[in-house]
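ok so I'm stuck.
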Amino acid sequence: MATNAKPVYKRILLKLSGEALQGSEGFGN
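replied:
not stuck anymore, here's the structure
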């Protein structure tokens, strides 16, 4: 696990979570 792998991991998580929320709640709460 490199230091530059942390931001990528967080970005992927945020993107996945954001997309999941958008599809589930329509980017509301």
